[in-house]
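The records we work with from here on pair a chain with its fold. Taken together, the tokens spell out the fold as the letters spell out the chain. The record below shows the convention in full.
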Amino acid sequence: MGVPEGKPRPGETVVLTRIPPGLLNGLPQEDQKAIAAIVGKPVLLVEYDEDGRAELHFDDPFDARVDGYSHTHSIWVAAEFIERHRT
């Protein structure tokens, strides 16, 4: 799938503008908390899947790890829920 028109490209920093309905359903509390914490914060856009959903990667802001290991999350959201990060 190509980049949706007018949307950021893979490798760019984006922000999750809001949590998509149903995204948090059934997730463990710590994952829900980590996802909610990144709304409006810069995260990495990895790619778009075949359905046009954006794959975002981010480190858990509440579970910082040491010794070179981090607790990284991946989520997939419709492109309408992201926008380019403006510095």
